[in-house]
Amino acid sequence: MDSAIELFCHEFQERLGDVYSQDIVRSAFADMLHDTERNELYETGIKWAISELRARGVQQIIVLDIGTGSSLLSMLAARHGADILYACDGYGPAITTARKVIEANGFDGRIKLISKLSMDLEVGPGKDLEQKANLLVAELYDTECIGEGLIESYSDAVKRLLTDDFISVPQAVTIFTQVVDSPFLRNHYVLSKHGLLIPSSIEECIGTSALHDIQASQLDNEDFDPITKPTATFHFDLSDCSKTPYTYSYELPTDCNTQKDWSPCVIMWWESQMAPDVMMSTAPRWVHPKGANLAWRDHWMQAVYQLPNISGRWLQCNRDEYSFWFNTTNDRSVSPKPFCTCGVHYSTSGYRNAYLADSSLYNVMCDSIKSAAERNILLVIEGGMAVSVSIAKAFPLKQFYVVDNQKVTRELTRNIIEMNGVKNCHIFDPENNSCSIELVVADVCFSFAMTPWASVQALDVILKSLNVQRVRRLPHTSYLMAMEMDFKHLYKIRSPIVKTVGLDLTEYSKFIEAAASQAKDPLETQPLWEYEGVARGLSIPLTKDIKSGAVLNFTRIAKSNGIALWMEHQYGEGNGSIISHGPTAPPSIGAPVLWNRYVKQGVILSIPDIAEISINI
Q: Which residues belong to any copy of the Protein arginine N-methyltransferase domain (predicted)?
């Protein structure tokens, strides 16, 4: 079966040109230039830095802009009187476009564009930079702050490219953390046992240091309880990142040391100092100085980290050059960077863990099996492990054969079967299977699926490879659904921008739109629960016949800025037998939608002003 999955995935490899074009759209455009607060605060910082250098008696202000992109920061520096400007970017097409943007704004001849990474720049007569810069402007942040090489880039620039008395914008950044109790977030990390014994290799595994980036402001108040106040954890003076310690710890409330029935996580964000009294914060709504009126961003979210230990007196905070990790300890000892030894944390995503922990799938599958007369049942649940075995245990008079396309979780499923003595549960082996499968019960949700309907197509491939085709299936029907949406902010990640802070970015928009036009499929996947929006139309079934190569037409009624797409899988009769990968309650026009929070939905955002949209399957 592994080879069948590889063949299925190979189909998507043929679309690399399409994916490449979409990557340009996502990385180069996104919502960053729509982030007015960001742009204004950068301008404030640059204006202050130039004034400060002038006040010090600096005769020539020489600017280095690292990772220039649209060259927005360079142009702001030019606007406020910088004398010599260098802007570098390792992505050649961005440099070509930046040149057009600079010319459109009347700064041609003032900014030297260099198609290199900053660490490849050379300084000296006739080289990339004729002399060292005394003003560094850069935007190298990501959600984790340091994940895109901020420390290495700044350290190299300070050492080789900048004068001793330089100023940088931003000047510094502070990492904040807050410990919360959240079963919802913890379920993205912990394998749900479903009442079974599980191997010690899973129980004792400390997982990985991978963060879960999330629009934390969209969490409901009921999703978490704050355990600590927001705490400044690491501070980076960008003129000398080596000053920042690699560890920090702070004391937790005393009851955390003995608490056993809780779900601790760390939520992290950062605050950037743009000028002495000017801060730019990525804090979530409950601690942000502007509260619910905070600036919306998708390029910088908040990060959630899981704790290997759930009890301890101290929160131990650790970092390296690119990442952070956290743990609770009783003695403030330094925790090694987590490394998954069981295989689950690498092979199963956080979304998938939380999806399997939710009781909906288990309940719907059990209800459908309860009413089924068939005795030999094939279960197809990617990474299901405990779910699959628990279902088999609930029906001792039936025989269950488990299919899993991942070797790691297949072996762990075998261990769980043996540990719990579930004798009617077996790993399906198509070459040595003596029984005749009578019923297939599948969770039509595969982590490798790039579109909502790809999981339906993948299930067909899997069953064909197993020679299990002409038997009854549950779900018996899978509908592709669509609904018009108006998103409050999400549309911005694909929306053209003409001007920001008084600068013309039309040429940059053209660059992104050209890449978007080369992408055959405008659809992408997003966790829509993280993005505010209201329904602008009814949810409509587009098809229940998922055929590769088909073209479906969706007629728009409202002038909406998005179309959401998802699958609904019918396992029995009535609404109680439906697994919806979209809304979890019937949507109402003009009202917010309650989305399934464990599955990403499809969404089309770059919508032309036409009445009918074609969707390629």
A: 206-309
